């Protein structure tokens, strides 16, 4: 395997890792699950292709599991309930049968809005072909054909290293960001703020904020700081492909910090309304 750290396989891995990450964070999470903003057709197509590069579950399955996670967080109905331990919340939940409560409560989650979108319905119907082509075939073909990389190196870097890093970056939001960090907005819940997770998961590690204000398109108060997803969404907003961005109310934020935060918030909250 090439030892050149700037080799085509590394560059391709980083590029496709970022593309797949954007599909998860901006697409499956902030757009399809939480409807934090609206997207015009060109951006919706981009999100769908980027999500396909991630090689995870179908959009409908991903959204259903995440909506259940928010509605029944840290209960037996939570697919990756962190009360069952770090390993379970990270990857263990994907290695065993779902708890009966997950299946029962999952049936109560309304995902009809997804299949009303013709793009999502088409993706759902042909999901496996999208996954195989955009996650494995296309990223693997590019380094050998365009840059003369060996097939072995390309397969190892793209299909294994890139894929494993991408999956673990997503899973870290469910595990690390529920165990290690502070709780400036709501100390009563398990999700925490973890900058390390935000670095690898493109801004998804500000999890205490996200669970307190799940409708905020930034998934954080910090805007674009370690939040590549918010940066790109703002850029798409400037060209009109993304619009109607939802953000957390300043008054509500200050109230939550003052009443329920763990005291780790570094901003000014003197004028917060206490209820």
- Helix count equals 13
Structural class: mainly alpha
Order of helices and strands: HEHHHHHHHHHHHEH
Output the radius of gyration: 19 Å
What's the β-strand tally? 2
Provide the spatial order of strands within the biggest beta sheet.
Answer: 1-2
The main pleated sheet reads as: 2 strands, antiparallel
Mean pLDDT: 91
Number of domains: 1
Shape label = globular
Report strand %: under 5%
Q: Can you tell me the residue ranges where pLDDT is under 50 for at least 5 consecutive residues?
A: 271-275
Helix content: 55-70%
Kindly report how far apart the N and C termini lie.
61 Å
Tell me what you see in this structure.
The protein is an all-alpha fold. The protein has one domain (8-260). It is built from 13 helices and two strands. It has helices at 8-33, 41-54, 59-71, 86-90, 100-106, 112-115, 118-125, 127-147, 151-174, 195-200, 207-212, 228-238, 250-260, and strands at residues 38-39, 242-243. The protein has a two-stranded antiparallel ribbon with strand order 1-2. Helix 1 packs parallel to helix 9 (151-174) and helix 2 (41-54) packs across helix 8 (127-147). The longest helix has 26 residues, at 8-33. The radius of gyration is 19 Å and the shape is globular. The termini are far apart. The model is unreliable at 271-275 (pLDDT under 50).
């Amino acid at each position: 395997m090439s030892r050149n750290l700037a080799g085509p396989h590394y560059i391709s891995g980083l590029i496709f890792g970022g593309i797949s990450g954007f599909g998860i964070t901006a697409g499956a999470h902030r757009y399809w699950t939480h409807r934090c903003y609206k997207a015009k057709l060109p951006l919706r197509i981009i999100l769908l292709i980027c999500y396909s590069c991630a090689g995870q579950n179908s959009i409908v399955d991903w959204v259903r599991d995440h909506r259940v996670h928010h509605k029944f967080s840290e209960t037996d109905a939570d697919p990756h309930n962190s009360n069952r331990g770090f390993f379970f919340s990270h990857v263990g939940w994907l290695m065993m049968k779902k708890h009966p409560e997950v299946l029962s409560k999952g049936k109560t989650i309304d995902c009809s809005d997804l299949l009303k979108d013709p793009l999502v319905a088409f993706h759902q119907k042909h999901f496996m072909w999208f996954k195989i082509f955009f996650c494995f075939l296309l990223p693997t073909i590019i380094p050998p054909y365009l840059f003369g990389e060996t097939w072995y190196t390309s397969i190892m870097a793209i299909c294994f290293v890139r894929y494993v890093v991408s999956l673990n970056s997503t899973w870290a939001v469910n595990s690390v960001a529920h165990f290690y960090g502070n709780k400036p907005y709501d100390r009563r819940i398990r999700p925490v703020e973890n900058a390390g997770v935000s670095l690898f998961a493109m801004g998804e590690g500000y999890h205490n904020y996200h669970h307190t204000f799940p409708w905020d398109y930034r998934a954080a108060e910090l805007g674009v700081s370690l939040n590549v997803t918010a940066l790109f969404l703002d850029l798409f907003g400037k060209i009109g492909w993304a619009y109607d961005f939802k953000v957390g109310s300043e008054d509500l934020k200050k109230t939550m910090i003052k009443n329920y935060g763990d005291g780790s918030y570094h901003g000014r909250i003197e004028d917060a309304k206490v209820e």
